[in-house]
Amino acid sequence: MKKVFIKSYGCQMNVYDAERMADVLAPQGYVETATADNADLVILNTCHIREKAAEKVYSELGRLRLLKSERAAEGKATSVVVAGCVAQAEGAEITRRAPVVDLVVGPQSYHRLPALLARSGNGAKVVDTEFPAEDKFDHLPAAPRAVTKARGVSAFLTVQEGCDKFCTFCVVPYTRGAEVSRPFAKILAEAERLADAGVREITLIGQNVNAYHGEGPDGSAWTLGRLLERLSTVPGIARLRYTTSHPRDMDAALIAAHRDLPTLMPYLHLPVQSGSDRILAAMNRQHTGDDYRRIIEATRAARPDIALSSDFIVGFPGESDADFADTMRLVREIGFASAYSFKYSPRPGTPAAEHEAQVPEMVKAERLAELQAALDASRRAFNQATVGIVTDVLVERHGRHDGQLAGKSPYLQAVQFDGQDAAIGDIVAVEIMEAGPNSLFGRPLAGATVRDGVAAL
Ligand code: 5AD
Ligand code: SF4
């Protein structure tokens, strides 16, 4: 038995990829461990989206250098791998700057990990950042049932990867490559396998998930709406979600799915980035603030209780006070249930990084604080509005106290309640009693536990 420690940074795609790396290494005798200290193999699964992500990786590698030499003194070898988007972006530069690294592997080559590891080590450096013609998913093994079970009742499933949109701030089209959707049959088979292992909720993921397109079993062209409709019939799957979407790809079929599919959860993460048309154009988002408002209106007409979430960037080059005021106005108008917001961070190789009118750090910090205060108030108002309602909770784990269970509402809120009668994986009708800063507290309705299907309220 050898031990592998995988540390993931960044998005859900990296979480999913980390599991696939563990799956491809399992037949080689590797079991996962929770710390680097006792690991024979350490994989840093990196993110390149913002800030000095690469710098963080180098300081982590500094710590691993010490660990590697301590273990070497005890006669133990440690392989160090850099995977993910920093690996893709920096390639051989990593092995030059950090000799502790044995292998640099980009996200399209994880299926080759065992072969690459065999070639590396003992001073041999290997770098693989190719975008191979073959589909890596064809070569990645499925996790054994027990492993999938241990990973919990909520799972990610990649349906597409990469992006062709080229927003001017974003590295994704360079690190993850062009948009590629997985074949329908593969997605269905994976969903069925997850359901068979006890998974109740599947979140379809992709950098641009609603750009998913493929040939359906009927031979016609399918988009995400049709895919969700088909997956909603997989026995055992009670909940479907998807993330992350682009406003341009919110087509009528996807909006209708929010009206028609009870298994599709009333939650939409739809990044808008800015409320200013001038900035949206400079970002190459290919939509205006009003386009976004219209999409939200249509989605709310389809599913009135839908919880909305978004991503924002403040201090994009050229952003004026008036532009930022437009963002604040949009935030107040929409009423987001949750959101992520960031200071613009110039990414090497992206068009916006070359822009002359970079916004001073101080201004970015002020705008971020103002935006986050508004988003925070909006989130608290949303949570407060759910106090008193009865809602389904998918039980994911035991809570901190005896007899306490913790799970998620359809709106992706964390909910805790006392529920001796329910088990992990059950869906329980819970009356929300109180909204805390990070989670809601509720009480289960008598006899409302449902094991197969959605709780009938
Ligand atoms: N600077 C700041 N935020 C960024 N994002 C992507 N690129 C950058 C950047 N260069 C944010 C966007 C995106 C989210 C995943 O990360 O808001 O939606
Ligand atoms: Fe990046 Fe998303 Fe724009 Fe694609 S759509 S370039 S992933 S921000």
Please explain how this structure is put together.
The protein has 457 residues and is an alpha/beta fold. The protein contains 15 helices and 21 strands. The chain has helices at 12-25, 53-73, 84-90, 92-97, 113-119, 136-139, 145-150, 172-175, 184-196, 224-231, 252-260, 277-282, 289-302, 321-334, 361-385; strands spanning 2-8, 30-32, 41-46, 79-83, 103-105, 126-128, 154-158, 160-161, 180-181, 201-205, 213-215, 221-223, 239-243, 267-269, 307-314, 338-343, 390-398, 404-408, 414-418, 427-435, 440-444. It has a six-stranded parallel sheet with strand order 2-1-3-4-5-6, with helices on both faces. α10 runs parallel beside α11. Bound molecules: 5'-deoxyadenosine and iron/sulfur cluster. Iron/sulfur cluster binds at residues 163, 165-167, 170, 172-173, 207-208, 246.
Task: Give a brief description.
The protein is an alpha/beta fold.
Question: Any chance you could write out the topology, listing elements then pairs?
Answer:
Elements: E1 2-8, H1 12-25, E2 30-32, E3 41-46, H2 53-73, E4 79-83, H3 84-90, H4 92-97, E5 103-105, H5 113-119, E6 126-128, H6 136-139, H7 145-150, E7 154-158, E8 160-161, H8 172-175, E9 180-181, H9 184-196, E10 201-205, E11 213-215, E12 221-223, H10 224-231, E13 239-243, H11 252-260, E14 267-269, H12 277-282, H13 289-302, E15 307-314, H14 321-334, E16 338-343, H15 361-385, E17 390-398, E18 404-408, E19 414-418, E20 427-435, E21 440-444
Parallel strand pairs: 1-2, 1-3, 3-4, 4-5, 5-6, 7-10, 10-13, 14-15, 15-16, 19-21
Antiparallel strand pairs: 8-9, 11-12, 17-18, 17-20, 18-19, 20-21
Helix pairs in contact: 10-11, 11-13, 14-15
